[in-house]
Each structure stands twice: as structure tokens, then as C-alpha cells.
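Retro notes, structure queue

What went well: the backlog is down to a handful. What didn't: a couple of records were mislabeled last round, so from now on we paste the full input next to the output in the thread. Example, using Pilus assembly protein from Paragemmobacter amnigenus:
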Amino acid sequence: MRRLRQFLTETSGAAAIEFAILSPLFLILLVGMLNLGSQAFTQARLNQTVRETAEAALFTQDTAVLSAILRAALTDAGLPTSGSTGAVLVELRCLCGIEDLAEALCTVQKTASCTATGMPWELVFKISTKIPFTPPLPIEGYGPRELTSELRVQLR
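Corresponding output:
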């Protein structure tokens, strides 16, 4: 009985046991915060490049120029731009008054009225990009994924 009481009151290895129990939990939390922070930072950079391209759409309505601007902004931000690693899309769409009522690829020179509403076509640039994201420390359930950003700019 005396040995059992002495064993239960002994504290020399308590810190090591507590560390062994709690350290995996803290390590998982640390890795999760690192991965989520990295994803949030990459998404913010991606959104910024799309916003910069949208601002350029106010000055030029040439989709080839806007695609080049978007690719350059992605490259400057260190993000992938083409091939199997990323996708860039800049389209000029004509909307007929109510969104999704009539939508078509068009040119800036399209001046005819929309037949459904009798109003002029609205020119809208759709700027979107999609890039792959691999977390710095992949863990089970949180592996590679795609990040996307899309913005529509209405010109008239």
C-alpha cells in the first residue's frame, strides 16, 4: 500500500507525459493555421490581380490586351498563368437588360438594341482566373485544391 501511495504522489515525469499528450494537438493546430494562412494570402493576391485587370478594362476594351495584363499581373504575383497549372479568361459579353435573359459574346461596337427589352446592350467584361494551390504542409483532408477569382465589370 505504501508503494502505491508513493507512486500516485510522484510527479517527476508528469511534465513529459503532459507534453506527449498535448504536443500532437498543438502541432496539428499550427500546421492548420499555416495552411489556411497561406491559402488566404494566395487568394488575396489572386483577387488583387483580377481587380487590377478590371481597372484596366475601364481604359481599354481589347480582350487580348486585358488577357496579357492579367497574365502579367499573375506572373508578377508569382502565380501560375497557363497550361495545366492555371487558366485565364477575359471575355466581353453583351447583356440584354436583365442579367441572364440574353447574353452573348460581342464586340464593343455592338450598338443594336436588345430585342427583349428595346434597350441598348450592356457591355460587361467577365474576368476570371483559376490556379492550383498546394498547401505548404498538406495533411489528411486538406490537400491540393483550386483557387478561383471572378469579376464582372459593366461598361455601359
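Agreed that this is the format going forward. Reviewer comment attached to the example: The first strand starts at residue 87 and ends at 95.
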